[in-house]
């Protein structure tokens, strides 16, 4: 009685050993680091970039170590987290703002032998380990300008239809349309026409003599709606892009009228995240211009591929755009017949109609695919008082990635070729899948943030947890003697297994998650209390010690399973309907329930069997 077969003891030892192995990486805190990657995934990052970065840090007298060239980036470790921002500024000045992204990161210190076995530290939420904080500002003026540019062509069309002959219709200061007329009759006709056709525009008459004007601006309410749309659309797109990157438990939320906060907790590839998040990438499809086309109806663009740019330079494309990337509903990476990367694109129904109509009329002509990148480059200027002011200058880079002959009318599905590498194709597909930004954005602030509740509060919280655990351990020893010792050992194993499982699954531990962990510890002890109380009861009823041990474990089993199962159901519901910290609590609690059942039932039973099993016992120390 009360004896396990050898294989059960070995199984428990193997599980406990694996738990120790996969929980061990959490003993190695990460190093503060600076990571350098290219604005484009096609840009080569090599030892020369690392040498320039190290020289910049040496010149700035910033201590660093462990510089390494990774797959598509360079990583430099620093001595302290306070030196991250000065290091970033020094490297950015040395490399320039055009081609490279310098981002803050946390570099893992897990030994290589552990990483080779697939062991990695548990991800910690922003409230425990901090992470990278981005504050981004949406350039809402751009969407207003784009909207007004669309109004210009519509205004011209409506005035022509109403026979209100105009001298010119121009967009002034990106926000006001100015239509000029020779006579008062034409001005009045234009006012009546525009007031009827465009109720969202505010109209006023201006000018004198034969230079009469009608000025049109958007109503303030309309401008606010456009700005709200731009910020909301960018918010959705950023969330999609962060999800595509696989960042654990990110925070993407609006701040004020035109700013967005992005927080990436724990150890993440922040250079890659910053490059993907901040990039405004889009596509435009245009037909190649005919040789006799007027200069006003065509534009010249260079090839993006260096080989084609060296050979051909560029090509003339029509100014009229067939479709843009916002019509894309899906984009997947593939390979053509020659093994070169391509992006297989699916359009929405409207985009498919527009593409079919344009290509049906132009079979045999070449269609160009423009890749457009909009980014902001910081420029430092000095004001009249001698103060340095950083201004964000927007640059638009439009280059041809493909110029192919239309063999047959295209529909909703087609492919884009001419990409340099699979990495570039993957990046383009990701950006198109996540959605185009409604308006460009630039980084206002970037920093590594500490625990959101403050380091002092967390220190006090951890201390209180330690005191509470010590009290539980002492109580178990005082009340249950040898059985309490077995319960405490099983409790320690339960904690190790909980941390190990969370590390293996890549779960994120937050402060509410710690609350779930403490609750799990209480439930694990609760299971042992049920067992030990049942053993005491059997002893009081006159049952022999060995029989009392066996009956205590067997009879308490159903009560333990019922209690843990009902709690597990609640945890699953919390995870299903909750978000963020609530999900963190639910995940920790769910895993803890499963590990505590193993440690309380099998672990404690194995220890008690080792203490008392297979021998004559007159008295139990319980």
TrEMBL record:
Residues 315-439 form the SecDF P1 head subdomain domain. Pfam families: Sec_GG, SecD-TM1, SecD_1st, SecD_SecF_C, SecDF_P1_head. It is found in: Cell membrane. The chain crosses the membrane at residues 460-480, 487-508, 514-535, 556-577, 589-612. Residues 445-606 form the Protein export membrane protein SecD/SecF C-terminal domain. The keyword NADP does not apply. Residues 231-288 form the Protein translocase subunit SecDF P1 domain. Residues 1-104 form the SecD export protein N-terminal TM domain. Keywords: Cell membrane, Membrane, Protein transport, Translocation, Transmembrane, Transmembrane helix, Transport. Its main location: membrane. InterPro entries: Acrflvin-R, SecD, SecD-TM, SecD/SecF_arch_bac, SecD/SecF_CS, SecD_1st, SecD_SecF_C, SecD_SecF_C_bact. It is a multi-pass membrane protein. The keyword Transcription regulation does not apply. NCBIfam families: 2A0604s01 (TIGR00916), secD (TIGR01129). Forms a complex with SecF. Part of the essential Sec protein translocation apparatus which comprises SecA, SecYEG and auxiliary proteins SecDF-YajC and YidC. Belongs to the SecD/SecF family. SecD subfamily. Part of the Sec protein translocase complex. Interacts with the SecYEG preprotein conducting channel. SecDF uses the proton motive force (PMF) to complete protein translocation after the ATP-dependent function of SecA. This is Protein translocase subunit SecD. It comes from Microbulbifer celer.
């Amino acid at each position: 009685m009360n004896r396990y077969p050898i294989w059960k003891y070995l199984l428990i030892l193997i599980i406990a050993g694996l738990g120790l192995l996969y929980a061990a990486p959490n003993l190695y805190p990460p190093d503060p680091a600076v990571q350098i990657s290219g604005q484009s995934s096609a840009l080569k990052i090599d030892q020369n970039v690392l040498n320039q970065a190290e020289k910049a840090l040496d010149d700035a007298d910033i201590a660093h170590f462990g510089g390494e060239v990774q797959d598509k980036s360079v990583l430099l470790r620093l001595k302290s987290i306070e030196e991250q921002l000065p290091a970033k500024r020094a490297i950015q000045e040395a490399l320039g703002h055009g081609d490279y992204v310098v981002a803050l990161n946390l570099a893992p210190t897990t030994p290589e032998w552990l990483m080779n076995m697939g062991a990695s530290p548990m991800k910690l939420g922003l409230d425990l380990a901090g992470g990278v904080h981005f504050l981004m500002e949406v350039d809402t003026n751009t969407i207003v300008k784009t909207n007004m540019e669309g109004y210009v062509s519509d205004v011209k069309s409506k005035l022509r239809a109403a026979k209100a002959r105009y001298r010119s219709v121009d967009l002034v200061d990106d926000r006001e349309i100015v239509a000029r007329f020779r006579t008062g009759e034409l001005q009045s006709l234009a006012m009546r026409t525009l007031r009827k056709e465009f109720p969202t525009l505010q109209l006023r008459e201006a000018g004198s003599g034969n230079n009469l004007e009608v000025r049109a601006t958007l109503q303030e309410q309309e401008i606010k709606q456009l700005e709200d749309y731009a910020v909301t659309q960018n918010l959705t797109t950023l969330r999609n892009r962060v999800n595509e990157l696989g960042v654990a438990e990110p925070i993407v939320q609006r701040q004020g009228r035109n700013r967005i906060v992005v927080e990436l907790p724990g150890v993440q590839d922040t250079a890659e995240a910053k490059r993907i998040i901040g990039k405004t990438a889009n596509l435009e499809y245009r037909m190649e211009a005919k040789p006799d086309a007027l200069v006003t109806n065509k534009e010249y663009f260079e090839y993006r591929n260096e080989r084609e740019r060296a050979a051909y330079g560029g090509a003339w494309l029509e100014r009229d755009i067939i479709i843009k990337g916002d019509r894309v509903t899906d984009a997947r990476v593939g390979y053509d017949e020659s093994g070169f990367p391509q992006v297989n694109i699916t359009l929405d129904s409207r985009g498919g109609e527009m593409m079919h109509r344009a290509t049906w009329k132009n079979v045999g002509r070449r269609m160009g695919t423009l890749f457009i990148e909009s980014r902001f480059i910081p420029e430092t200027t000095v004001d009249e008082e001698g103060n340095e002011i950083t201004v964000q200058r927007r640059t638009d880079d439009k280059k041809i990635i493909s110029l192919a002959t239309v063999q047959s009318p295209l529909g909703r599905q087609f492919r884009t070729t001419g990409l340099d590498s699979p990495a570039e194709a993957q990046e383009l597909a990701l950006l198109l899948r996540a959605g185009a930004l409604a308006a460009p954005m630039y980084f206002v602030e970037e920093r590594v943030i500490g625990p959101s509740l403050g380091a002092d509060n967390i220190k006090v919280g951890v201390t209180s947890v330690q005191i509470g655990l010590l009290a539980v351990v002492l109580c178990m020893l005082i009340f249950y003697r040898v059985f309490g010792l077995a319960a405490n050992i099983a409790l320690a194993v339960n904690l190790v297994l909980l941390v190990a499982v969370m590390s293996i699954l890549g779960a994120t531990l937050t402060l509410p998650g710690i609350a779930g962990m403490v609750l799990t510890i209480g439930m694990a002890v609760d299971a042992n209390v049920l067992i030990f109380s049942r053993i005491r009861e059997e002893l009081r009823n006159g049952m022999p010690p060995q029989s009392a041990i066996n009956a205590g474990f067997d009879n308490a089993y159903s009560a333990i399973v019922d209690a843990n199962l009902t709690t597990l159901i609640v945890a699953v519901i919390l995870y299903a309907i909750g978000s963020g910290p609530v999900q963190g609590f639910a995940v920790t609690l769910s895993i803890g329930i499963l590990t505590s059942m193993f440690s309380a039932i099998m672990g404690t039973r194995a220890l008690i069997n080792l203490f008392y099993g297979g021998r004559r016992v007159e008295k139990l120390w319980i």
